Amino acid sequence: MGRGKGGKSRTQRKHFQQNRENVWKQPRPESLPSTTNLFDIQNPDFDQYYKEQNIVSLQEWDSFVQVLRTPLPAAFRINSSSRFHADIRSQLENDFAPALQAIVVERDEENAIRPLPWYPENLAWHSNFSRMQLRKNQALRRFHEFLKVENEIGNITRQEAVSMVPPLFLDVHSNHIVLDMCAAPGSKTFQLLEILHQSTTAGSLPDGMVVANDLDVQRCNLLIHQIKRTCTANLIVTNHEAQHFPGCCLNRHYDKMGPDQQASELLFDRVLCDVPCSGDGTLRKAPDLWRRWNTGTGNGLHNLQILVAMQGLSLLKVGGRMVYSTCSMNPIENEAVVAEVLRRCGGSVELVDVSSELPQLIRRPGLKRWKVCDKGKSLVSCKEVPKDRRSVVLPSMFLNGGSYRDIDCNRICDVNGDSEDGVQAVYPLMHEFTEEVSDFPLERCMRLLPHDQNSGAFFIAVLQKVSPLPAIEVKTRKEVDNQHVESVNQCNEDAQELQNNPSESTHEVREQISEDDKNETNNADFKLSPLIGEGDSKEAEAPRNVENIAKIIPSKRKLRIQSKWRGVDPVVFFKDEVIIKNIKAFYGIHDQFPLDGHLVTRNSDTSHVKRIYYVSKAVKNVLELNSVGQQLKITSVGLKIFERQTSREGRSVQCAFRITSEGLPLILPHITKQILSASLIDFKHLLQYRNVKFADFIDAKFGEMAANLMPGCCVVVLGEGNRDEAEALKLDESSIAIGCWKGGASLTVMVTSMECEELLERLLMRSDRVTEKGSSMHEDELSNNVGNVEQESDGNSKDVETIWC
Ligand SMILES: C[S@@+](CC[C@H](N)C(=O)[O-])C[C@H]1O[C@@H](n2cnc3c(N)ncnc32)[C@H](O)[C@@H]1O
């Protein structure tokens, strides 16, 4: 499964796909009859291991396991970027909550659905029903249908409650450059983008951006699909091994830079390090894990997790925050990783005490002591690890870290890790193995357990970089990487052995580590991070100018990069002035909406461009600087804003590019032509019939004005009717608009029927709400009040969004 398998992800990590967020892909366990209840499967290794780890007290054990053996209740998030987020929240609070409560009262259960108390603005909800119950229970059908449709449309996202927590501790601001290192399928990236966009007004973009990375191309595609719903121009999706995420360049004032000016290394304000893990925190969602669980999985991932976290910290700005998280309960993947990272960073990184943040979230402190287990044996210190297991059971797993070299050579090191012979040790030498608890304030880590708030399990640690990371000798780094390779090899051998003895399976570990890991770990070329950097690898390297960046990459490496990325479409700035001028003129786009330099395509033959993407200023800067060396392997970038449209009208259409659904919220306030305002009744008419002849509009003047538009793409805004001058349309965040096509005799709506139905229903609900408020308004009057109703509902006009279906 090495490199060169035709554009496929280099490491197909089957077990990740079975864990975590994508349990929808759960395969049926082969060896079990279909009638077996997966929740009943016993795994004595699991019980023994976690009892020894004391993750809960022995008195609590039964209730812990009992909850772990019940299906996970459904949870979901209202997307705050959704046009209707306030309506949906109100529907949940005032309609579904009381209706469902009536059902559960009969069954003597509590809290049918409720907002998660720790999630801001009642935007995340817990339902006491598992997915199975929702699917099978007639009484719950309407709620289930609601969840399905809103999820499909993008107004809500189903997400495990505990998985929503890490982004909330990242403290993201709208101007932050954020790296999501292991991002697919993108639930947390979605949250990060929502936070970034939170305070932007219609037609504007935040200064910050998110780089969402994942090793698995197919999972990257899932992420891209999911994120499309946020309509963001502030995202780059990349496809790298997170532990080798390349150094990039950035200058926030790139616009004003001359050719000789310096570009600085791209460091991130925030890093989310939601690493691949054994995933036993998802047992309630993926009960098949009961059968597959073994200690080898966590042990096999430990080193990769450290490498990813170290790379994240090296790419983090001084003063920046990184959140390390897993959905595993295993201390080897959690506290042991955090302890090792703190050890390697030698005081330049601190564990943040976040006990006062999200006070309503029930959490437990991180463990201060744990045990290492290998092949059913508990090991107290790395002294006890037999030589042939040393590549699998690493010193960093133990409370006090250390290195086998120290045991073997018995060299004396000072506190800085310098040995007598002047060679720096891999890590500071182990203390005596008598200490019983870790020296680090690991109690600041957070453990979320299933029986505390009826959820899955999660682990979260918040880290802050307080100074540049210490330089580590490159030889030592190679050694660290080699250790990873050895561990991989040993895991492969273990897997082989386990084919004969399946009771202690570590096969997932084997799948998880790629051939590439083996090949690449010895390459210390062109890495800016101290973990795998060159020479003395000072973290704050000298700034580079654009030309130097290209020179830095050795040509061999460049070739490798290019061939490695074969099959990935290039990112090309779209600069065809004729087309850009044509688009601008056709839609009357204001000059203050910058197009120059903000448009990109994925087609190097720019004469055959089909889709044009809009990128925010921050994304543009990163692209401009990084395209030089092609450091970033970009899977997706920007917001699809224009798409070539062929039509029956053929050449009579003056602009071949239509505005896309995703692109309209951004461009709507900036267009002055091909835009009409319809009364509520005609707007509904359009949604209902999807194709309406000019003569059939209720408002004859509107029909006339539609007939007078240029053939091609146009926009219909819900308003007072009879208005076509953009100034008179008074577009703002409350505007509701749909994309249409003006043909020879009719207007056709250019959105799916599902979206039309949903929008119709939402408009109906708003009308009902106005009527309920005692107003006996006429429908025409209602159209003027659509925006006002929402503002009344929460008194906050920023919550009201432009609507584009
Ligand atoms: C726990 S999941 C991430 C979930 C994601 N943060 C979310 O909230 O939707 C871990 C992800 O790491 C990816 N992965 C595994 N090894 C990786 C590596 N070496 N570098 C980057 N991503 C990796 C997997 O493909 C998987 O999508």
From TrEMBL:
Binding, S-adenosyl-L-methionine: 182-188, 214, 274
Predominant localisation class: nucleus
GO biological process entries: tRNA methylation
Entry keyword set: Methyltransferase, Nucleus, RNA-binding, S-adenosyl-L-methionine, Transferase, tRNA processing, tRNA-binding
Record carries keyword Methyltransferase: yes
Domain SAM-dependent MTase RsmB/NOP-type positions: 64-466
Name of the molecule in the record: tRNA (Cytosine(34)-C(5))-methyltransferase-like
Gene giving rise to this polypeptide: LOC101488989
